[in-house]
## 1
Amino acid sequence: MKKILLTLALVFSTAFLFAQQTYPVNGSYDVRPGLYAFTNANIVVNANQTISNGVLLVKDKTIQSVGTGTAIPKGYVVIDLKGKYIYPSLIDAFTSYGIPEAQRAGAAGGFGGFGGRQSVFTSTKKGAYNWNESIRPETEVRTVFTIDTKKADDLRKAGFGSVNAISRDGIARGTSAAVTLNDGKENEVMLNDQSAANYSFNRGTSSNDYPSSLMGSIALLRQTYMDASWYKGQKEEYNISLEQFNKQQGLPQLFEADGWANILRADKVAKEFGKQFIIKSTGDEYQRVDAVKATGATLIIPISFPKAFDVEDPSDARNLSLAQLKSWELAPTNPGVLEKAGIKFALTTYGLDAPRDFWANIQQAISNGLSEKQALMAVTEIPAGILGINDKVGTLEKGKLANFLITSENLFKSGNIIFENWVQGKRFVVNKMDVTDLRGTYNLNIDGVGSTILRITGTAGGSVAAIERLGADSVKTNATFTRNGDWVTITFNLKKNPTGDVRLSGYLTGASPLAFSGDVIVNAMAAGSWNGSFKEAAKEAPKRDEPAKPAIANGPLIFPFIAFGNTTMPVQETVLLKNATVWTNEKEGILQNADVLMENGKIKAVGKNLAAGSAKVIDATGKHITAGLIDEHSHIAASGGINEGAQSVSAEVRIADVINSEDVNIYRQLAGGVTTSHILHGSANAIGGQSQLIKLRWGKAPEELKFGGNDGFIKFALGENVKQSSSTSSTRFPSTRMGVEQVYVDAFTRAKEYEKAMAVKGNNVRRDLELDALVEILNNKRFITCHSYVQSEINMLIHVADSLGFKINTFTHILEGYKVADKMKAHGIAASTFSDWWAYKMEVQEAIPYNGKIMHNVGITTAFNSDDAEMARRLNQEAGKSVLYGGVPEEDALKFVTLNPARMLHVDNRVGSIKVGKDADVVIWSANPLSIYAKAEKTFVDGIAYWDIDRDAQVQKAQKTEKARIIQKLADSKNAGARTQRAFGERPPRLYACESEEDYWAEVNQMEGEHNHE
């Protein structure tokens, strides 16, 4: 009777607790304060303070006191929690809770009409908003937020009392709101109506074609910061988006970044404009933790980890890459790694299949190095501070909201049960406090599996389980058993079960005798129902102390985090190469039986009988040594698209923003003797993006790949790609070769006017990143490499350049260069061409294999490039073809892929030849480097052997062993009852070329939508 009265008291007191001051009541007012005294509890005030045998007093929505020996005021309902715990309710700083799902625009599919639809250049949104729909800072969650009772209930059951609600649509996403998970009205739950200004690189549902690439998104965000700054000082136009963007700069700045590389990219943009982002990541920071720490950013990291792969079938196991295997093994270490590195972070449920998986994954993280103290801070105090609500929630202190949990024991102990979750002083029962002991043996009937036996053992009324299928194909296995009061989840794999991973989710339906029922999920798909009935009680095992759990043994990190990655980075040494044939590319020519000494990353000496001193000596007798090969035209090592094809002029985008250090083609090209690559924008636009020169420093982070100290270049293009000949629906200008010429005339005319306006003191000229790059060209601070084929267009651009006062540095491809070699020579224009490509499209019908020879003979600086990840591995053979076609001398032929591209890239003072003082970018070949039989045995960059043919054999052997170890670990995990997923091979990385067409964000959003649907 006493329990009934207490329950009624709780129901009635909370029913009227939240009557709103400004809302009328249709009837009589009945507002009573909720007065509660929770006694004899272990009260965890915060991660650093726990009160034993404490008292928590709550009145209405707030905590009145926390302490020991507290006198209970008259009128308080006393709840004895002897032996139980009280914790602050948890806080999730990154959710889409209460936000209507954004309606995505039709998926695009490559530039040139984007998959058959009409191009959209400026916003279709009605009103005085930004020209680009992905810039939408006017979005305010507080105006669209709606309580979602189902999602709130799921989150409360997992222990959460407050969340940050974010609209995840666009690049500038507007403001989020911190809310409680109460079930009243929207204006009751708002804790901070503008908790943060939000950003990403994903254009979201915008119907604009631009941006279609990652580098375009970065450029648009950068330009938006500049536009907002200009907007404050002008009176020419009104722009709601820029107005709101400026107003939000005083709020916390929260950026959603997909992967550690995008953390670095986001931070770089932030630093440009004096900002510090709070960054929500995807949980792979452990792969580059030092670089992530250097950003100084506070992180919000997911606690979702890859499911184990089902590797029972060896053919399935072979599909898995080393990166997939190591990610499964090491992802759970991420929180612990960040804690050890001293990086401040909060945890989020975002990315989990369901909030109920939160605690199993927390346990996994703790087993992999995360401390319980840090885990608690990461879901209470830290997110409260991030969201500006730490005066209301996050700890249990007088005056704060009564947001707290009542649990059976330590929150992080396996088998702990969350009994109640109080939100703003309102009681939500998660599990009954009088928990039934479930330990024992049960008969189960499972759709698709048949009759089985379930055995529940362990502590806390049941925490460990095993499954046995009955019948002729009998099989036993352990199961993963999760319990929250009367709610249980049981996951297991039966080796002989063709359906694979089975998850039973259900509730206790009877207490005498015990019985269960619920749903069956097979491979994440609903597959029927199950029920179980009590058979016999568990036999008590003799009590003994549990041995301490051994530390989980994981394999080492590799850099980069893909196949052939280094467990330890190769180091710079003093190295003496002895007795080789040395192709100097200098006046000394080819030296026989000569030595090369490398020290501190430079070539220190070249000659015969050099003294070794303390140098490492490599006998190169019978071998050949050359300078490292240089690829003037490459598209490797870039992320998120190589073309920003939505506009005919995209000079604002920068390959430098999207360098991808994890591209296996870096390693493969080192194996072909390449040490330097010029990474170019594609040829979708008349004026494409700014390029980036890199050195192939395998294993280094993106910024460390950049050549450094070199002139900037930019990609121009002529021909079919620019006018989008392949598209029948594109409305993008230009659509003719005449239009291409006009694009150049218009762009440089605008650039000249812009430069003049900028020079006038006191002018409030809007900074334009596109025009900034063109002004650099006019002032010989940025140099053009132009995609070109046809003689008439080559003549046209030379004429336009002469007329408007800019210079062309290089014509690349230029398969009709032999027709205009005299004009190129007169203008000092270099040529980077193909060795023997012809007739692969209409523009190259008149290409000839003697093109390189003819241009070289005229006196043009001539190089052979790849434009192809595979061809780049054989640039030495491409150079050899010039000997075949036209009889170019061997020394000159080698210069086509070494010194000549160095000259046209303005770095011949550092690379391209074997000369004292130059960078020690050196290759040891097994034979004449122009021979098809020659192998690059060692490739040095800055004196570091990033490629070694002997070490490669060891790496391949070691990584094969590493894969086998992890595959066995996966098999053991499945046998222990872990949830698994089908073993699927990774989507192969895209190999970009000039013509690569895609809308990167349309593909990303489509994949995300498919994942969410699943």
Note: The longest helix spans residues 949-975.
## 2
Amino acid sequence: MTSRSTLTAWLASLDGARLARVIAARKDAVAAPEPRSMEEVAERLQRPGSVALALPQLPLPCLQVAETLAALGTLSRDALARTLGATAPAAARELDVVLESLADHALVWPDGDGHLHMAAPLRHAWDAPLGLDAPLEKLLEGVTSEELRGMLVALGIKPAGTRQQRAAAVLEHHGDPERVSSLLAKAPSAARELLQGRAKSVSPQTEFIVFRAPEADSRPGARWALDRGFLVRDHHGYGRDRMPAEVALALRGPDWHPPFQPVPPATELVSVTAGEVNREAAAAATDFAAHAASVLSVCSAAPPAQLKSGGVGARELGRIGKAARADDVVVRIALETAYSVGLLAADGPRVAPTMEYDVWAAQEPASQFAVLLQAWWKLPLTPSQTRDEDDKALPALAGTPFCDGCLQARGGLLAATARLPEGRGARVATDLGPLVAWHRPLAHPSFHDETPFATTVREAERLGVIARGSLSPLGAALLAGDAEELAAECRRLLPEATGTVRLGGDLTAVVSGTPTTSLAELLDATAARETSGAASVWRFSADSIRCALDSGRTPDEISAELAAVAAAPLPQPLSYLIADAARRHGRVRIAPAACVIHGDEPALLAELAAHRGLASLGLRQLAPTVLVSAAAPDQALAALRGEGYAPVAEAADGTVRIEKVSPRRAPAVPTPRKPSAKTGTGRAAPRAAEAPAVVDAHASAARLLNVPPTAPEPDPFGTGVPFGTDTEEIVAGYAKQLSYADVRQLGHALDTGTGITVEYVAASGSRTVRTLSRLELDPPYLEAWCHLRAAERVFTLSRIHGIMPT
């Protein structure tokens, strides 16, 4: 029986709850269009791409059991337990838990006779599972009948007449570990040492390739091993020396067992209370939310410039961090998460907020933080990583390639902390790294981590996802994938934004907690921010009040707006500062010409003309109240302000020029579209793929279990179910390599305009995986926007060998 048929039968035997668990773990199997039968579900579950998505979610013991089955083939549960050395009651229970988890992922399942079957693509997940080469039967396929006769003579077995009989005799001999061990004991010492060394580390990647006749082989013992089939040289004696899996297992001996670690590594734990975890998580989340809001506010006021090679470089990151009073880690996480959800977007040479940012900025801190936290959880990179594997500086927003290992590292960290005993946490949070590696062996740490996954752990601590070495309520909501629960926990842990400020006689403004957007904008417009976080501090100065006056505010408006948000009356020093700045403001005016500086006080103008610090302006006095300069108006404004004066600029009609500009907003991230016939150009592809539709596992399971018997009308694939649309019929006629399920998936994507991921074989024979959108069918071709190339491409339908939903 094929793996697909046994999987179909096993799925059909499950009850609704168990089938729902399988669907929840492998949601792509029921992605639109909904499968019509259990056979189609089994076919989707057997896709190589689907299996590749499931593997990184498995802990170490699941991968070890799967590798053992990939190496040894179909085994019974008891035989597997003996092979792994898991026959003791405790180890047997652990093995059953592992097999249950593999079954929930539809990767390993039992048949009616108790034998364990595995998804066919899983056999190719390891180049050399358990370090074993191919079975002897496969290696003998390239061996001639005469060579088989020589092997049997060397083994002391009378050769049979046909090649098939000779191969069967060699297989029977080498299939008996005792006979192999007995013969090896009588072998020359050189042959014995060679074979035992190879048995410990057999791998096709490390085999010695021989391009000479076997008679010229001078390696000690190799000739003896080749003559008896302990090593097999394919390609008619001129290929590689390969050790059959049966021989390697026999040489490893009956006491050898594949690695099996069902228990996670020990970590030093300490007692923590729920209250301590909540308090620390709340403090971290509140601090990050406030700093992130400050970072994006700075980007709104002065959008950062991009490097020519792309991304925001160290200089701009430093400027943002200094203005927002945030360190580099927070700046990078805020920028990457905001960019991934469309709050920031590229706008020519700069990265500017979008209109969505204005909506986000008006929300409460809890809602703001929930958006950024979910973005971090799904971010396909490590945002706080500052250097690459070659130790070169990494800019932010540089379009880092998709990193599934980064996603799995976060999942492993939360899964590891979720399984810690209740009321216990790691003494040192970074010691959780080995646990992450056990829960997600296919995840990889950052290149410069001093301990495994230290960067991921620190990010999680910064965001309040883990606290005191334990999983916080925020992390639990993320792990459960419950957006509503996450929003509720954010509202519970983060305080509401405050709209009041304490104004001090030392010209400071202190806001406890996160200020509202309007309060932050008012204070940013009238004072300079000094600190951000759980408490934010601004300081008023003559320059900050002058900037507020330059933006069009009057002294009375400044006083009234500050009084409206102050917890107490305005301090006298602040009132004096506003009045003094207003009195000095506009005593000198600069009008456009080349330029003209004029005012009502001749003495002041004379002072300016004689000022050595303004010599670069080339000031010349035309009248007691009029100066001219060779400098441009903006240059003259900057020079006078730099010397402590408070000039104002005039428009051409003599009115005061208000120095208030609307914040720069980038256009929303566009959906890719086909080039126009006139311009031949298209718009840029979006940064991330569309979010998959929510799958109701229980509803899907109930529907599949109630599917009536398949219709008798046949179809070209022998499924017994006809195609549903004309598009599917057309695709099936040209895409001969695709299965029934793949044809339906591609047809659905064409009919609904959704994206799709394809495995494509180019004319050169190279295989690539492409994510495509904006599909248009033009038989025998498929035109689409290719996200890999960020350009329009044409694909031949017959070269598409596999389909996966995005």
Note: Residues 204-216, 670-691, 710-720 have pLDDT under 50 and may be disordered.
